[in-house]
Amino acid sequence: MNLPYDPEHPPQEPPPGCDRLLWMIAYQVHVDHQPGPDGRCGARTCRIGSFVWPCHAAGLAGRGFLGAVGAWAGLDNGRPASRWTSNVPRHWLPGGAT
Ligand SMILES: [Zn+2]
User: Fold this and answer.
1) Rounded to two decimals, what is the model's pTM?
2) Which sequence spans correspond to the domains of the chain?
3) pLDDT (tens digit, 0 to 9) for every residue of the chain, 98 residues total?
4) Distance between Cα 44 and ligand 1 center (Å)
5) If you ran DSSP here, which 8-state letter would residue 15 be given?
6) Cα-based torsion angle of the residue sequence 15, 21, 26, 32 in order, rounded to the nearest 10 degrees
7) Number of C-alpha atoms within 13 angstroms, CB side, residue 81?
8) Which of 62, 85, 56, 86 has its CA nearest to residue 9?
9) For residue 68, with 0-12 CB atoms within 10 Å meaning exposed, 13-18 middle and 19 or more buried, which class applies?
């Protein structure tokens, strides 16, 4: 599998051929849900719950980037949504989340 971006530092502009809307949504969630100096997610909505980073939203952003590149990167996105991450190496997801 060959991703057209660095999963640790995805670019704001989607790689060519990506689902642009999905990428832009994932990027905004990615930007909003970054770790703070105390190791917790810096997003206000996560601060209320004292979520340790990577929070659930950060994991969703990572999956959104993968979904945006989808099939042409060799991912089988025809699988049921609940099994999507079984297709993806854990180290590609923020914090190794599933
Ligand atoms: Zn968060």
Assistant:
1) 0.70
2) 20-96
3) 578 889 889 999 998 888 899 999 999 999 999 999 988 999 998 988 777 889 999 999 998 998 888 756 665 555 444 444 545 556 666 665 44
4) 8
5) P
6) 110
7) 3
8) 62
9) buried
Which among 12, 13, 18 has a CA at the least distance from the CA of 75?
Answer: 18
Contact call for residues 81 and 74 (beta carbons, < 8 A): no
Ligand 1 geometric centre to CA of 30 (Å): 9
Report CA(76)–ligand 1 centroid distance (Å): 27
Separation of alpha carbons 42 and 28, rounded Å: 14
Amino acid at 74: G
